[in-house]
Amino acid sequence: MKVLILGSKGSLGQTFLDVYKDMEVTGWDRDELDITDEQVVAAKIGELKPNLIINCAAYNAVDKAEEDRAGAELINGNAVGYIAKAANQIGATMVHFGSNYVFDGSNQEGYNEDDQPNPQSMYAKSKLMGEMELAGNTENYYLVRTAWLYGRHSETGKPSFVDTMLKLATDGKEIKGITDEFASPTYVLDLAQATRALVEEKKPFGTFHLTNSGVASWYDWAQEIFKIKNLKANLTEGKRKDFNRLAVRPQYGVLNNTKFMQLRPWTEALKEYLS
């Protein structure tokens, strides 16, 4: 099988290159393909003719998107449609990653795959636009919504929450952890392996929720990081309202996985990553 990974220099993209190293795998990042140029996308993907396209490319600057709506919509929205259209032209399966932020976060029970999105920020709206572009341009797709990713160092993206916490603790900085915002911290290796299994088991096309199991606040997550690393950190409790953030985040951004195998607990995955 011929596999194309887009956004191949990011944390998730690099992980997919490893997970598919037994296949004929190609990794393209922004230097190899400008996903915002529809004609170039069609030409290059049409020439390569992969059987599977995994799109890890994304605009992830949540607060910046409030002031750069066009940039977020181009990468998270329009470009997804261009890739999906190119995939459809050659009969390839496409995997695209969505976000828990498409939900408003008011449901403490968490969100199922078919629940109605209600995005509250420009970033979230751009991610929902991508979901619609995907579904509108190909039928052979897996939309995988996930949350709070961390893993190997990204060559192109921002540091993960885990990396940031370790640096702040090492530098002796005061750290305020949010206690009233919840989701499931997800290890990119677990996500990539589960995604490969999803494709190989030929599950019906559509939307899936894949996160490590269990729920945490940002404070819980930070506390667990320091416990595993046996680090003395100046960690205090904070509330959502204490943080001056441009974009609204969902308070309960928990994704319920009702359609596929459950991933291991987030604490277990974190422990493996940090060891």
Brief account:
The protein is of the alpha/beta class and 275 residues long.
Order of helices and strands: EHEHEHEHEEHEEEHEEEHEEH
Rg estimate, integer Å: 18 Å
What would you say the CATH architecture of the largest domain is?
A: 3-Layer(aba) Sandwich
Question: How much of the sequence is in beta strands?
Answer: 15-25%
CATH homologous superfamily heading of the largest domain: NAD(P)-binding Rossmann-like Domain
Please provide the count of β strands: 14
**Spatial order of the strands in the main sheet?**
2-1-3-4-5-10
Oligomer: single chain
Top-tier CATH class of the largest domain: Alpha Beta
Helix count from the secondary structure assignment: 8
List the helices and strands and how they pair.
Elements: E1 2-6, H1 11-19, E2 24-28, H2 38-48, E3 52-55, H3 69-90, E4 93-99, H4 122-137, E5 141-146, E6 149-150, H5 161-170, E7 174-178, E8 182-183, E9 186-187, H6 188-200, E10 206-209, E11 212-213, E12 216-217, H7 218-228, E13 234-238, E14 263-265, H8 266-274
Parallel strand pairs: 1-2, 1-3, 3-4, 4-5, 5-10, 6-9, 7-13, 11-14
Antiparallel strand pairs: 8-12
Could you please describe the fold and organization of this structure?
The chain has two domains: 2-150 and 187-213, NAD(P)-binding Rossmann-like Domain (Rossmann fold, 3-Layer(aba) Sandwich), CATH 3.40.50; 161-182 and 214-252 and 265-274, UDP-galactose 4-epimerase, domain 1, CATH 3.90.25.10. The chain is 37% helix and 20% strand. It is built from eight helices and 14 strands. It has helices spanning 11-19, 38-48, 69-90, 122-137, 161-170, 188-200, 218-228, 266-274, and strands at residues 2-6, 24-28, 52-55, 93-99, 141-146, 149-150, 174-178, 182-183, 186-187, 206-209, 212-213, 216-217, 234-238, 263-265. A six-stranded parallel β-sheet has the order 2-1-3-4-5-10, with helices on both faces. A two-stranded parallel sheet has the order 6-9. Strands 7-13 form a two-stranded parallel ribbon. Strand 3, helix 3 and strand 4 (93-99) form a beta-alpha-beta unit. It is globular. The mean pLDDT is 97.
